[in-house]
Amino acid sequence: MSALAALFVRDVRLAIRVGGGALIGVLFFLIVVTLVPFAIGPDLALLARVGPAILWLGALLASLLTLDRLLAIDHEDGSLDLILTAPVTLELTVAVKAIAHWLTTGLPLVLAAPLLGLLLNLEPPATGAVALTLLVGTPALTFLGLVGAAVTVALRRGGLLVAVLVLPLTVPVLIFGVAASNAAIVGPVRFGTPFSILCGLALMSIVVGTFATAAALRHAMD
Amino acid sequence: MALIDLANPTRFRALAEAVLPWLAAATVVAFGIGLEQVYFAPDDYQQGATVKIMFLHAPVAWLSMMAWGVMSVAALGTLVWRHPLADVAAKAAAPLGAAFTFLCLVTGSLWGRPMWGTYWVWDARLTSELVLFLMYLGVIALWRTIDDPTRAARAVAVLTLVGAIDLPIIKFSVDWWNTLHQPASVFRVGGSTIDASLLTPLFVMAIACTLLFFTLHLAAMCNEIMRRRVRTLLMLQAEAAGGH
User: Fold this and answer.
1) CA A205 to CA A63: how far, in whole Å?
2) How far is B151 from B143, CA to CA, in rounded Å?
3) Mean pLDDT in chain A?
4) CA distances to A14, B20, B23, B25, B34 from B29, in Å
5) What is the pLDDT confidence band of residue B187, given thresholds at 50, 70 and 90?
6) Are B79 and A215 in contact (CB under 8 A)?
7) What is the pLDDT of residues B2-46, one digit of tens each?
8) CA-to-CA distance for B57 and B205, rounded, in angstroms?
9) Cβ pairs bridging A and B (under 8 Å)
10) In this complex, which of B79, B138, B154 lies closest to A168 when CB atoms are compared?
């Protein structure tokens, strides 16, 4: 257990210190949301209507941006080999790394969402709904992205390929994330219906992502 | 002959080359019968002659999904038994699946032009086919990025299996999303509403397309084995040239 805790502390520290780049994702999120009014015009009513979709798309792209560093850095400096040979179940190791990654890149997106919602003229309940769906949805994105990062771990430039591989898999999360946000704002479905499906998708992604990533790493390294 | 004997590429190629002409002949015969039946099938009372697109569109759509099934079985073979032939089967199936999905999208939009008045609508079935097409392209991209074929096979196998779990969920979510956005869909082909006079040609065409898939798949597997042999020979040659 202490090995896992040590790994967790190490990953979080590496992410938030110089060179870790944990907050670049949030910065990217902010820039994407800033660019949208330039593209579709500063009409506040329109922005309020498409706001949840923009926030979700921005968070989706921002969470992809940091994925290629999730395992590749450890592979480059050799620490991934040490982690793989450690006497700890690989699935647990993978899950701990993913949770540390989500805390440093996913959670900041969730916390930034209310502020960006203000820029997009979202009402407070709508902002709350988007933040809540992002809180549930971003772990799903992290664990799905983890699979993409694992199958491309040995590639020198896997960045764009990870996005190409992972984005189609995130279609259900995007659909139900935006649907739940919109359900809270305009209906006609109750918020709980799409939101519980989103929770289910998140739980399933955590399970599938953990085991698939462990399998991919085992096969990639031997 | 057990499955493990086929791991020997020479033995597999001998078997495949014996089967291939027969499979190709069966494909031609099935297409002959199928096209003849399609030609003489009655037009739909609403859709007219455009209903004939269905006889290609529906079988191709079915094969676009079956190809992922073939890849998933091959992926299990790669990860569980490390059967070398499974790698080859998975690699040969990916471009075929992409091609059949592309055909499904093209025939779908050609059919949509007279029916919907536009080449593309965000209909649930078309949209999930599009996502499937993107996933095939991703798999092909991964095959082409990792240069060591064994390593590539394992990475692709994991991705294929995750995709196989996610595909039904994508289908379900797109259906849900579509009903939310388009409450009254203009288009409906119910399975039971098709008349028997149209069902028989459809069935024959489905068999013909399936035979076509397996013919092409077997031929592509033979090509892939030859490609790997060439690669090995080139590497041995390079080693011999540099290693003295």
Assistant:
1) 15
2) 10
3) 86
4) 64, 14, 10, 6, 8
5) very low
6) yes
7) 666 666 778 888 888 888 889 899 989 988 888 888 888 777 666
8) 10
9) 81
10) B138
Tell me which residue of A147, A194, A193, A151 sits closest to A173, measured CA to CA. Answer: A194
Rounded-to-integer distance, Cα B56 and Cα B41, Å: 14
CA of B4, closest CA in chain A: separation in Å? 21
What sections of B41-183 are H helices per DSSP? 54-76, 84-116, 124-145, 149-181
B131 to chain A: which residues are within 8 Å by CB?
168, 171
Option in A165, A176, A201 nearest B138 (CB): A165
Best probe of the B interface among A161, A167, A169, A206, by most B CBs < 10 A, is A169
Residue-wise pLDDT for A141-177, tens only, equals 999 999 988 888 877 777 788 888 888 999 999 989 8
The overall average pLDDT reported for chain B is 83
Longest Cα–Cα distance of chain A, Å, equals 58
Residue type, A25: G
By the 10 Å C-beta count (0-12 exposed, 13-18 middle, 19+ buried), A1 is classed as exposed
| Peptide bond between residue A188 and the one before it cis (omega within 30 degrees of 0) | yes
Q: Contacts of residue B165 in chain A, CB cutoff 8 Å?
A: 208
Give the span between the Cα atoms of A217 and A89, in whole angstroms.
Answer: 12
Residue among B89, B80, B217 at smallest CA distance from B143 = B89
- Render pLDDT for A71-93 as a digit per residue (tens, 0 to 9): 888 888 888 888 888 888 888 88
Residue B118, C-beta contacts closer than 8 angstroms, at least 6 positions apart: B112
pTM of the model: 0.87
**Which amino acid is it at A206?**
I
Burial of A129 (0-12, 13-18, 19+ CB in 10 A): buried
Distance from CA of A111 to the nearest CA of B (A): 27
Please answer whether residues A213 and A94 qualify as being in contact, where contact means their C-beta atoms are separated by less than 8 angstroms: yes
